[in-house]
Amino acid sequence: MLRRALLGLSRSDKIKNLVVRLPVTSGVVARFVAGETVEDVVSATRRLVGAGLAVTIDHLGEDTLDRTQAERVTAAYLELLSRLDESALTRSAEVSLKLSAVGRALSQDGEKIALDNARRICQAADAAKTTVTLDMEDHTTTDSTLAVLSELRADFPDTGAVLQAYLHRTEADCRDLSGAGSRVRLCKGAYKEPESVAFQEPAEVDKSYVRCLKVLMAGRGYPMVATHDPRLIPIAQDLARRNRRMLDSWELQMLYGIRPTEQQRLATQGHTVRVYVPYGTDWYGYLVRRLAERPANLTFFARSLLSK
Ligand code: FDA
């Protein structure tokens, strides 16, 4: 209930104007966001990789409404990839991309512009010997994201997808994307979705997550298990064992700032643990989704606002 209410409330301009005045260095923002600049994220990546973790980096931004902004975000990704390459970090660090950040929502030819920009980012990632994973946004964009994925995979077969266990359709999407060479990041899903398309009860979402995991683990692709859930992680480990998967044929993923001790513990056991690291000035939507996931974080958030 609270999660849905918060996701709804986050659309209020009044609330947004209050929150975006927080500096990125304030406690609650800094916990979930690595900083605003490419230097900030490269240094966070260096630290995580030095601690034995892998990384996927998201340049924050999801409401791109004009071409100049789409171009700016694309340029930011190209610069990021070049900096990761220069810093010899591309063996352990890839990038995550929201198609809405590179133009999909533009009224004219949005999907084509997003595909062209994503292709340029995939080219740069390929040249730097790393990969791109397409984030999944709300359900109205799922078909479009999967269509763009399929175009990109024709030239860049390593391009990854994100599937959201809360959608009724996802078990079937997992089946479609469980073939050799397919990289699928399975998460629960972070948007406010209607009953007609998504499970509403956390227990139903968890059951769907397990069904999807079974499909991915039994398939020939590379499952990326993106969850902090202490019950789902051992289930993933068990399914990997039953499907005789080696540790290098799947990985665990968590968000920057969430359960860092557990990230480290799993990496020490020999798992690839990839941390999703967001950076940039446009952190509002991302922060609200993190707060909505865990009401306990709200106290921390309120303290940051009061001490401003
Ligand atoms: P759940 O929310 O049930 O949490 C399980 C436990 O994890 C909690 O009990 C708590 O211990 C801990 N925890 C979870 N969230 C926390 C928080 N914010 N603060 C502190 N502790 C917390 N979503 C999407 O719609 N599209 C996408 O492209 C992506 N991409 C993505 C990439 C990666 C690498 C991850 C890990 C997640 C995403 N997500 C996402 C977000 C995802 O859908 C989901 O909202 C969050 O991962 C939280 O779900 P959990 O599986 O952790 O379970």
UniProtKB/TrEMBL annotation:
* InterPro entries per the UniProt record, alphabetical: FAD-linked_oxidoreductase-like (IPR029041), PRODH_bac_arc (IPR008219), Proline_DH_dom (IPR002872), Proline_oxidase (IPR015659)
The Proline dehydrogenase domain, residue ranges: 44-302
Q: Which Pfam families match?
A: Pro_dh
**This protein's pathway:** Amino-acid degradation; L-proline degradation into L-glutamate; L-glutamate from L-proline: step 1/2
Q: Which reaction does it catalyse?
A: L-proline + a quinone = (S)-1-pyrroline-5-carboxylate + a quinol + H(+)
| Catalytic class of the enzyme | oxidoreductase
Task: Note the SUPFAM superfamilies from the entry.
Answer: FAD-linked oxidoreductase
Q: Which keywords label this protein? A: FAD, Flavoprotein, Nucleotide-binding, Oxidoreductase, Proline metabolism
Q: Which cofactor does it need?
A: FAD
Q: Which GO terms describe its molecular function?
A: oxidoreductase activity
* E.C. no: 1.5.5.2
The UniProt transmembrane annotation reads none
Q: What is this protein called?
A: proline dehydrogenase
Organism phylogeny: Bacteria, Bacillati, Actinomycetota, Actinomycetes, Propionibacteriales
